[in-house]
Design a protein that fits this description.
Layout lengths: L1 H4 L4 H29 L2
Length: 40
């Protein structure tokens, strides 16, 4: 894929992947906190 070839720095992709994982984890924590507060 030419898109991957345009990026000579693999650290950029890894950083983006870590950012996405971090956002997913943060959303999971927020949802769990809201569910805990909403439960009677």
């Amino acid at each position: 894929m030419p898109v991957l070839e345009e990026n000579p720095n693999p650290k950029n992709g890894q950083k983006a992947l870590l950012t996405i994982l971090g956002v997913m984890l943060g959303i999971t924590v927020v949802i769990s906190v809201i569910a805990t507060l909403a439960s009677p």
